[in-house]
Amino acid sequence: MLGINEIMLLAVNGTLMSNLELNRQMLEAGGVFVSEDTTAPLYRMWSINDTYPGMTYSETEGACIAVELWDLSAGGILQLLSGEPEGLCLGKVNLADGQVVLGILAEARILKGCVDITRFGGWRNYIRSKQED
C-alpha cells in the first residue's frame, strides 16, 4: 500500500515539463526534477488542439518519446492529476533503459481528429517545428 508521502518517479511528456506553460503546477505539487529521458519505442504522441500532447502505448507502431522524470509524492501526483484535462490519466511508462515508471498517458477516446506528432519525438520538438513555420 502506497503512503501519501511516498516519493516515486513520474514521467511527463508535455506542458508540465521544465520551462513550459504548466510547469508551475508541477513545482506547486512538490515535484523535483530528476532528469530528461526517453521512452522505449512503444509510444505514439498526439497534439490535442495544439494545446497539449497525449501519449499512447503502441507495441507495433511506437517510437521513442522524450520525457522528463520528476520525483513526486503520491499526494503530489494526485494533485497534478486533478488538474489534468479529461482523458489524460496515470499509467505505467516503459523507459528506454528498461525501467518502468508512472507517467501521464492519454485515453484513446480523446484522440479522435487529433494530429499524430510521433515523428517529432516529443512535445518540445513539435512546438519548435510550429514556431519555424
Detailed description of the structure:
The protein has 133 residues and is α+β, with helices and mostly antiparallel strands. The protein has one domain (7-132): Hypothetical upf0131 protein ytfp. The protein has 3 helices and 8 strands; from the N terminus they run βαββββαβββα. It has helices spanning 23-28, 74-83, 123-132, and strands at 7-12, 32-38, 43-48, 52-57, 66-73, 88-94, 100-106, 115-116. The strands form 2 sheets. The protein has a 5-stranded mixed β-sheet. A 3-stranded antiparallel β-sheet has the order 4-3-8, with no helix packed on it. A hairpin with a 3-residue loop joins strand 3 and strand 4 (52-57). The longest helix has 10 residues, at 74-83. The protein starts with 6 loop residues before the first strand and ends with a helix. 30% of the residues are buried.
Quick recap:
With 133 residues, the protein is α+β, with helices and mostly antiparallel strands. Helices cover 20% and strands 37% of the residues. The strands form two sheets. It has a five-stranded mixed sheet. A three-stranded antiparallel sheet has the order 4-3-8, with no helix packed on it.
